Give the backbone structure.
Amino acid sequence: MRVIAVILIISNLFAGQDSLFPSDPDSLLSENRIDSAIVISKRNSSGLLEISGAVVMESSLNSALPRFFGSTDALRGARYLPGVQLSSIYDSGIHIDGCENSHNSLSLNGVPVYGAQHFLGLFSIFPPSHFSKMTLKHSTALENRLGGEISMVTRDSIPCRVGGEFDIGIIEADGTLAIPIGRNSAIFTTFRRSFLNLLFGNQLKIDNNPFTYGLTDVIIGGIFRVGKNDRLQFDFYGGGDFFNCNFGTNINDSWGNTVGAISWDHIFNSASLSQKLYFSKYSNSLGISFLNFKKDIPSSISDAGYKAALTCGKGLSSGLNLVWLRSCPQLSPQSDSFEGNLWIRKEHNLLPRLDLNITLKGDCIVNSGSHFGFSPELEFLVNMSRAGKISLKAGMNHQYIFQTGLSDINLPVEFWLPAGEYSKPQRSMGVDLNYNVGLLDGMFSVSAGGYFKALSNQMEYDGHLLDLTDSNFKLSEHLLHGSGTNCGVNLMFHKNSGKLTGWLSYSYSRARRTFARNGSQKAYPASHDRPHEFKALASYRTGRWEFSGTFFLASGTPFTPVKAFCFISNRLISIFDEYNSSRMPSTVRFDLSANFYLNPAMTRGFNLSLYNVNCGRDILCYRMSKDYSTDSSTDVYSYSPVYIDLKCIPSVSFFIKF
């Protein structure tokens, strides 16, 4: 029922290639020479490919996807990949292979970003026109995280002239300018602003209560080439959201990010060095008022860090990450910590078709309760040429920050805590096995994988909104400590080339958590646990038309039902059943999109989108409330669902590139 309180706050793909080596050993004799060779493969036009174990999604794919109120998003396509879950359509977080949203590393050019979602997670703070690609890894050995890694990568080429992209939708407009400064440097700027309240102010309601909402994004980046071997780069992001609604209790909330970084890349004769200084902050300012009561409940997390990575020859690399971290939980004292890790990685060829990658990492946090850890990882890679690739990975990792709070869907009121004062560091031990094969010269690819991960020192908050208004509130009294497991299977069939591209994916996963509730230690489904997810994405281009569609079918997420209620002193008291013992109805959504290009160069045109074509209604939560629909002389109460009823949303937007 914590979700109810928050609703009242703010309602490996593998394109196969033939082996470059001949099958006859005699042909490798020194007297046999090849002057030239032609390798024929189908061109990957889907915008999705696998490089060194990471899934890479090009920004061009986002422009073809169905839009929400005409808005594009650089993260939306990732949610249709196998193993990437949503706890609900309105979840602001991303769950990779059963992990919590906070277990994943989300970054802008390697700089961590916290709370990167707008409008209940329906789109992110990353306008796709500013970025060249997004990379996704299902696990990471180089960061202090238990889950996967998503990195937004900006453009790295110098344009020869001024260019730009502009997109005007129904609820927001955004634009990007690329400005060259001489031959060796360029500046990239992106601005996005919403006008949702201007056009739809009278129609914005949560549970029949009107609300106002707005957002702003500003991104500035620059690239400077200094000679042949050096490159400097800077990145800045600033933006945020505001929300106001009156549910009898007036809610004012604003939240946002500030990110800044300077990077230097240098190439030696046989090595390369990358260094980065950065700052990242996420803050939330929540205000509550009713009658003569008024309370401000702010929270924030800030970090300033240094990263260095040295890559040498013969598959050897090493790196250093140092972070100063300041956490300010709601109504709790701020705490400062120092976090870091030192790692080394060696890639070794054991046999002609067998590689072994070894990563060794030492990590730590230093504060009032200092902790040190050792996080190794082993990865075996088998390349069977036309028969595909197999990877087997096993390792351990530590994480030194926690995210928890008032909701189960990663809303802006969640807060961050460091390990030490409130808990020991989180730890994971896991193994995953993956197989990828390309078919018909790379026109199709098939992937299958399975994983298991054991989680230690997990944390959950069991308090409510009203607890934060208590002058005697102590955060440590509302924290639960436990463990968990994630396991599952991911399958994917991908068409890489041709007029029709896209993929079908299916995931089976179970995320279980064990905490002591009501005096007993018991395992239960995590709040984002969805055992079955089937997803499909397709895009078809012909002439000046480009059509696309997405389909999503998933099991419902767990929730804690009310089994009885009673009145005590004229107050309605709910008696809850076992935690997360019921599930919401299954989620089904079908979206459609069409781009019509006004010119043969496809640089300007219109997008027509239908979001939620099937008019599916997603339940946010259930709550006990008075039923005013009856004419009974006595009060009648019902246990009814709460929706944000979007129904089918048509949208039109205009885009131009130059």
